[in-house]
Write a structure and sequence with these properties.
Blueprint: H1 3-19, E1 27-43, E2 47-49, E3 58-70, E4 73-86, E5 96-110, E6 113-121, H2 141-144, E7 149-159, E8 162-169, E9 183-190, E10 197-209, E11 226-240, E12 243-254, E13 257-268, E14 276-286, E15 295-306, E16 311-322, E17 325-338
Antiparallel strand pairs: 1-2, 1-3, 1-17, 3-4, 4-5, 5-6, 6-7, 7-8, 8-9, 9-10, 10-11, 11-12, 12-13, 13-14, 14-15, 15-16, 16-17
Length: about 350
Amino acid sequence: MSARVLIGVITVVALAAALSPTGAGARVAARTAVELSLVAGYSDHDEWVLGLPGSQKTAVGFEYFARLSGERGDFATTDVQLRLSCDSRLDGAEAFTFEVHNAWLEYRLGLGRKLRFGHFAQAHGLEPVRDTHGTLVQTLAPLDIGFKKDWGVGYSGIVGPLDLDVALQTGTGMAPAPGDGSYLLSAQTWSPTGRETRYAFSVLHGEIRTGGQMRTLPLPDYTDGTTTRTRVGAALERLAGSFVLLAEGSVGSDDSAPVGGLLVELDYTPPSMQQLTMELQVRGWDRDLDSSHGAVTTFHAGASYLLTDELTLRGAITAVARDDLDDTQTTIQLYYYGG
């Protein structure tokens, strides 16, 4: 049995157990929420659009989150988050896609150790701690790996003073695709939680399915086959009063081509207006460091305003520069998340 098939079997069994009735004496504390994202903007390249490439789209979905507990307290957590989205840059039925974001079950083993099964973020970069599912601003993951989450199994624990995460995944992103022997192995250490400054180091290696979009159905077009992808990365999260500084860098290779990128972001929340957060970000990626072509740089200036506990208004101006395209995108998002 191949590693991909084994991962798939374990994942299906684990998720079935998460959604099935619990045993005698077990208690479930669950929360169900509806998600609605209305996105509209203007792009110099695509004109009027209902989303940003590789980022946020107009969509509707839901999330089911539950904690399972027994006589000794919580022993498992599960999260299922799905949505139906619309990408106005595609034609006809292709514009509507079904996306699986979170679909995982996590068992607590005690002493800070956990096992996770399903669809979750790889152990690399900022994405595991800065979930960008509902936001306009993104991490380096879509450019670096090609997707933000993948199917597989993961382990979390403590090694000395550091938090450790390890994941073995299918290397296919949102849609597990048959064949080609793809896989993704990642490992990351973070400095302890609860500190004003946290830093991380990570490694990643795998055969990644390329050429597909970040969607589950219809199945992405994986005609490009696989790419051998190796990375070494670092990440930083620094809290300083009303400011949050985020940074991540990643270098490595795609097959024989050296690649690398960097992200730096500064967020500010005025003390007298806690509902407002302003964001400045620069993100760059080069898919061939030996060539004068292949670099893409994104400048993002945005703001989020919490209208109510469940409704957020966001706006952003994004400038994209690469060798074959210069584009400026102005985007507004109304985001609802609530029960």
